[in-house]
Amino acid sequence: MTAFPVAGSEKFANKLLARDDELLAKISPALKVHGRNAAATDSVDPLTYEVVRHRLWAITEEMGDAVKRMSGSVVVTDANDFGVAVMDEFGNSVQVGLYNTALCASMDMAIKWTMEHRSGNPGIRAGDMFICNDPWVGGGIHQNDVSLFAPLFIEDELFAWTCAVAHQVDLGGVSPGSWSVHSEDVFWESLPIPPLKIVADGRILADVEDAYLRRSRMPALVALDLRAKVGANNVAQQQLTRLAEKYGAGVVKAVMRQMMDDAEFRLRARLRELPDGTWTGLAYQDQARQGDRGLYKITVEMTKRDDSLTFDFTGTDPQVDGLINCTYAGLRGGIVTVILTQLCGKIPWSTGGLMRCIRIISEPGTINNCTFPAGISKASVASGWATTNAVHECVASMLDAEETDDPSFTSVCKGSFGLSLLAGVDQYDRPFVTMLSDVMAGGFGARPDRDGVDTGGEVPIAAGRIADVEMNEFSYPVLYLWRREEPDTGGPGRFRGGVGGSSCMIPHDTTIKSIHLVSSASGKAVPQAVGISGGYPASAAHEVIVRGSNIRELMASRSMPSTLRAILGAHEVVPPALETDLDWDDVYFYEWSGGGGYGDPLRRQPSLVLSDVNNGKVSSRAANEVYGVVLTTETGVNDTETERRRDTLRKDRAGVAGASS
Amino acid sequence: MTTNTKRLDDNLVSSSGSVLCTHCGTVVGTANEWLKEALVRERPAQDGGSLVAEDPAVYVNAPVVFRQFFCPGCLTALQTEILAVADEGIRVKRLGGLADE
Amino acid sequence: MTYIIGIDIGGTFTDAFAGNEVGRAFSAKAPSTPKDLAEGVVNSLRELADVAETSLEEFLADTSYICHGTTSSLNALVTGNVARVGFLTTKGHADSIRIMNAEGRHTGLSPEQMQNMPQTDKPPPLVHRSLVREITERVDHKGSVIISIDESEVRDAVNDLLKLDVEAIAVSFLWSFRNPAHEQVVERIVNEVAPGMYVGLSSTLSPRIREYSRNVTTIMSTQVAPRLRAYLDPLSQRLHGLGFTGSLLVMQGSGGAVTFEDAPNKAITTVGSVLTGGIVGCVRMGELLGHRNIISTDMGGTTFLVGLVVDQQPVIVPTTILGQYKINAPMVDVTTIGSGGGAIAWIDDGGNLRVGPDSAGALPGPACYGAGGSRPTITDANLVLGILNPDYFLGGRKKLNLKLAEDAIRTHVGDSLGLTVEEAAAAIYAITNAQTADLVRRVVVGSGHDPRDFVLYAFGGCGPVHCASYSAEIGVSSVLVPLGTTASAFSAYGLAASDILVSAESSSPSNFPLNVGQVNSEFGALEAKLAADLARQGIEFSETISAREIDIKYSMQLAEVATPVPNGILTSDQVIGVGQAFDEKYQRLFGAGSGFREAGLQAITYRAFATGVLPMRPELPLLSGAVSGPIEPQNYRKVWLSAEHGWQRTAVYDYNQLCPGATLRGPAVVEAATTTVSIPEGTRGVIDAYGNMLLEFQTLE
Lengths: 661, 101, 701
Prior knowledge:
The structure holds three protein chains of three kinds. By secondary structure, chain A is of the alpha+beta class. In chain A, about 30% of the residues lie in helices and about 20% in strands. In chain A, β9 (about 295-305) and β10 form a beta hairpin. Chain A is globular. The model of chain B has no long low-confidence stretch (mean pLDDT about 90). In chain C, a hairpin with a 5-residue loop joins β7 (about 140) and β8 (about 145). The model of chain C has no long low-confidence stretch (mean pLDDT about 90). Chain C is globular, with a radius of gyration of 26 Å. By secondary structure, chain C is of the alpha+beta class. Chains in contact: A-B, A-C. The interface between A and C is large, with 92 and 82 residues. β8 of chain A pairs antiparallel with β8 (about 95) of chain B.
């Protein structure tokens, strides 16, 4: 059944961010805002600025430490899939922590919405904290991202906001983990919670907490993470209060504003160094839900004029029945991730200032700006991720046009995030649900001066990591046949995209002799890490289940296969969305992509190709057929043959009989 | 090649409203359509050089191709993409400084 | 009475400290000699003998122990001058050392480096692919053999590697800590094929779950062991040739030493060798002064190190970061938080004043050194502010050039900000102190402690200049600047005051409730190993102290917490008590309500320590003299010590003129031969019986 619009849901459709003065006009007079009356301290001396700036940075670090130490979610503690931020009195982000950059990108949206809709009733007071996992409002990209934000009052005025947001393991919906491959609209999924006062007078409200936890299959764990976020906000509030006492609220506020202004100033200065122009990005997702055969595109045209960027998503496909849509918050998160990682390597992450340089044009009802009640449970790694890819393509192309001896950007990194959720009975006879993290070792895009990082991680998460094979085998009933880097998964180019990898495993030591699998990985029909400057796209994601295999006989005869081909059985290609069971004799293989290439691979230095072959980054077949490098038996490069081979390949691939070279 | 050129990417420069190949100086397009004069070649998605394990038709109905643009002079690959046939007009690059506005 | 000597090799100087049991103590230093570190060691001993007014030979003949903090292993790894190692691992898993759990791209980077993502890279693989061989074998999580090892395949692989001229072989198979049989097969075969070749087994060197860190630890150990032996053996012979008949000990990162003969077997633990002396020094000094909880801060010319002592024990963590790797070796938890006195002040693209993390290092060093450095450093600011005396820096051994410092600050900071040289220097000084406070606080709070429960020790040449200012902000109760006989060689003093420490561990992951018999047998096996290990040191100990711990975690949470376990045969109640102790420690570290108990507990790794207490320990001499009447400053000069008070006429004292009990009120500056102590207004400094200066804040409630 096609989803139809829900009357009244417009209230939550938050996309146009009010300017501070507009917002001020909309909020209840009951809420006194520190705001503009701090004009007395418009500028601070360099010493005070730097001291207070560093302290604000240290506060976000301390918040991050607090979340990590208290959280019960491996995705938080291990993979750093969470965010923290300190914001001004209007919710503009002053300092974003070095964690998941996409998560904090829409905190301002959620806070502005809260100020508008909650300042009168039930009111915003000292000691309050609001919970939110409604991506239409903001504060996260799919329902699993639960944010908790707290107003900080100095005397009786709203001085600032602090927030912590983290991925929660399960908040209900038809499938464990809350992203169902069967979802057609949001009613199949965890129902979003718009900003809700869950802490008042510094205490968690028991009735509200119960209403929140009741939806989860793992309520105790979710309750623990709620406390982790309360703890992080408390840490920040104590430290900010101390800071304001020591230097004066006006001075701290002036520093906050100056930090955002400084970030804006520096991004604008950086943009002015770059050529004006328009660049286009294109990204896809294949299959909106299990059984679907659609291919959905996000297109963006980025125009850079002087010191600002406009992203125009016109032409993006309409929203679809399935779990892959994202709201405006996801679209914005996709942009912020690229701005921070590609343009702000040395510019402070005060997104409140940075976002002033950016204009967004997008039509509601599209796949990355969907309206209620479209399904969004996979949004963060579906349309949100694809938005990042498309924007990354534009920004990298723009940076590529700069005349510089010191270029610094990457081609598009690992194109898609494959969910592999395993559930069943573990080796200790307990039920288990887990998300494999292996896919988070994606290849990074090639750079204009060197190759991309092999199995380098995740772009939105500055410090992600994956679990050891042994920890997975200790915790879950699986046995890995291998986990490795995969040759040719990096996009070919003059500089090669970093390679991705693959894991291959079988059920092991489980009494029910079967494991339930929810798989959802796009980028299978069309590779999603595109190349730059003629560089080739990276590999397509690939997943195979070998049904009824001979793996157990092989192992019994002391053989450990190292290729899928060496395993006999029915090789079943896994579509981009599938919920199934792995039976005792089944083998599960999944391969994730590398990063896009840079430049023409026929212009790659042959010695680098030789080293790639020796290091298993490129197959000898691809060395010959894609890079045109002829290697001798002594594993050296035959220069003459290579010249000849490249000449032939140039004509072959262009389909011309003879052209000058 | 004239000295008054502006870099566009690893392979292209612009000069007086034209886009030229950096390597051989051949004109490949204009500021509004960088690759206007470039050679185009399409091949099956699995055959282009990126690692694509399965025919896209296994997963989706839309026809998908591997498409490359080449400098007509030296056959350097200028743009390489895998995309839906229906979307072939989407990727364009335009130089703001030279665009007609 | 015989001496114990501690020798600490630093980047610039090799420090030596000697003490005996009746309160004679000396220290001396000689330039470090990076090309042949032993040269600097012997030179520092010669200097020490000079101070003791005796010959080197007589002095060494009268010495029982020399405890050495060596940079040998660390240098080998940092410079890549390591043995050529072949690596054997389980089929399908050779890429573990290249994937690096994806964390290898960012581990060990500063936040500034991490933020600049396009410029992050992994280091090259520890072992090149051509020297890695996968072996068909498999053991599962219970230690059961799934695929047994094929000896002929191993033999082929080893022969293959030998042809490629490997000097040593490292072996790390999946789950080897549960069942080491397959690794032992490899060892046997290598011994047959290439007798005498060093073989490092992960089941021996690092029997801990998580194959990535185990692989790294095993490989690095195997890489540095031959180099460490090649350094220590000749050093020992040289010392014996000079008349030394005692034991040469080598400090480990864990806070205790082992004999030089045994050190290569524990090569990886010596990587933290040079970080440890200062922490042990804090522990020993804390014992004398009654300080149980200490923040150890060591601010030198190029680094700023922070460590913690809690309940008179150094805080030790089971995992250490080295470069971009995580290694399994219990080490004192020392964090590098800054770049020392050489940290450079600069203006960023936004026109804001920043300090560090780039450092002028030892060379060219601060502008005022006149060695070619043109960029302003913290030390230059301190000179401009009058805190440092250009004619009496390091006791007059180095002349500082005020004009060069002023020029650097004016050109690179003052002019851009529209500040005078003095204003710019004051900003650099204040920013340094505030940021140091932020970072030290984060280390303390991040370890689950309250700074108010600590005394901060500040040593290293640059530390005492700043410590009073940043400590007040952190909120510690007081600050100790070790002076007196340990002044110039505090880390060397710590080395001389060390004991022998051996440790053993083994992962045996299991869910609670634990099997009491299993727990007892795990510790029984570890302690039998340690007893043999101690016996092998060939030293008579006055006593042996045992300690045990288990790394425990909540099954749904990541953080493993090393939880103390009672000694002896455990009862089931005691084993239950270990779970409770974990709960309590977890709450203390991470906050009340932070543990997800419902998910249950898991024991991961068992670890045992044995300390062999040396029969003698150096006693610090009590200083003679006492205060009689008011103390006269040497002179007064204009000094800037705080933003609040600005430039003040400040009393300058010569440390050599001060006696125990001397009490100085800020603003004051004390010039010692090794450092300069700032005492801002509102702070009081008192000289104690050992010659240390204790700083207290008068404003403290």
